[in-house]
Design goal:
Blueprint: H1 5-25, H2 37-57, H3 64-96, H4 107-114, H5 125-144, H6 149-158, H7 161-170, H8 181-192, H9 194-198, H10 201-220, H11 223-228, H12 237-241, H13 245-259, H14 271-278, H15 280-295, H16 301-335
Helix pairs in contact: 1-2, 1-14, 1-15, 2-5, 2-8, 2-13, 3-5, 3-15, 3-16, 10-13, 15-16
Length: 336
């Protein structure tokens, strides 16, 4: 299985969805685009992550050497920028700008974030992602040793246990992998069946006609509109976003169609959106603080959205070009 360019574009679209949602929350765009739309983007990120790990590694032997290469690749990709921004946020919050969006000063919060237990603000997704990387190793071993579908499904269900037990005690859904395991395993299951699915003439034909409607449905299924009209299971934020089957149907539908790379979704292969997908990690992590800074500067409201997009894209590219890639190469060189 080779590189799927359209999925990099889909990652770019996911990052843009999160950005749009937070722009709305800051009053730069209509309110209807906020209030939960960002979670749709994160769902796409998590499905893509599960798919990518399975796509790259499940067909390889789960040997000590391959697992080591897998972990080094993950560390090089995720750790440097995350650690840099956590430390930077502590320094800025403590000595420079107390109103900084990533206001992190408590030692306990810093330690938990650096250990990937949990993290505040938009950082919360990174510990979830890293926890998945270790769960994936167990899945990889089970898969390579011939575990059947039933055992693999049981394993996937067991990963939800920590959150099931914690929720009654802490009164909210914990930001752990166990709370968000569904999209990762959806991605894994799809990757396992990738060749069979994409070689089915019937599915290829269906995707040809359903691809554009799936994207339209994604942007019509706005959480803010559904919440306003009571078209939700519950007012609880987690339930009306992550636990809503309609959201999953729409999100997975877009991912599934993009996986086939149909001509009708050619925009996902366009250089600007693929570029955004390539820099999406930094774009996601730095976008909200910059949004809030630009919001409070003397920038005309009509220009705040475009100014934010331009500044965040430029800074994310600089981080990718001059920090993420060199740090990734350094980590791989030192650890492999």
């Amino acid at each position: 299985m080779g590189y799927i360019n359209s999925l990099t574009g889909l990652r770019g679209m996911a990052a843009f969805i999160v950005f749009i949602s937070h722009c709305s929350n800051q009053g730069m765009l209509p309110d209807v685009l906020g209030n939960g739309l960002g979670q749709i983007g994160v769902m796409l990120f998590f499905i893509l992550s599960g798919f990518l790990m399975a796509h790259l590694y499940l067909d390889k032997e789960a040997s000590v050497n391959n697992i080591k290469h897998y972990l080094v690749a993950r560390v090089g990709r995720i750790f440097p920028l995350y650690f840099l921004l956590i430390i930077f946020s502590v320094l800025i919050s403590t000595w420079v700008y107390e109103e900084f969006h990533y206001h992190i000063t408590e030692l306990k919060i810093v330690v938990r974030a650096l250990l990937f237990i949990d993290a505040p603000f938009e950082f919360w997704t990174i510990p979830v992602e890293v926890q998945f990387y270790f769960v994936f190793i167990v899945f990889w071993l089970l898969y390579q040793h011939g575990a059947g579908p039933v055992l693999l499904i049981v394993f996937a269900l067991l990963t939800t246990i920590p959150s099931i037990f914690l929720y009654p005690k802490i009164g909210h859904v914990p930001a752990l992998f166990s709370s968000y395991s569904v999209p990762f395993f959806l991605g894994i299951i799809t990757a396992i069946n990738y060749s069979r699915l994409t070689q089915s003439p019937l599915l290829v034909k269906l995707v040809k006609y359903l691809a554009i409607p799936s994207v339209i449905a994604l942007f019509l299924n706005l959480p803010a509109i559904r919440a306003e009209h009571g078209w939700v299971l519950d007012d609880h934020f987690f339930i009306r976003t992550w636990a809503d089957p309609v959201n999953w149907l729409v999100v997975y539908g877009v991912f599934f169609c993009a996986m086939f790379n149909p001509a009708s979704l050619g925009f996902l292969n366009a250089r600007p959106i693929v570029f955004l997908g390539e820099i999406s990690y930094g774009f996601y992590l730095i976008h909200y603080p910059i949004l809030k800074i630009i919001k409070h500067l003397a920038v005309p409201q009509s220009l705040q959205f475009l100014a934010s997009l331009a500044v965040i894209t430029l800074m994310a590219w600089m981080l990718y070009r001059f920090f993420e890639k060199p740090a990734n190469r350094l980590v791989r060189a030192k650890l492999q």
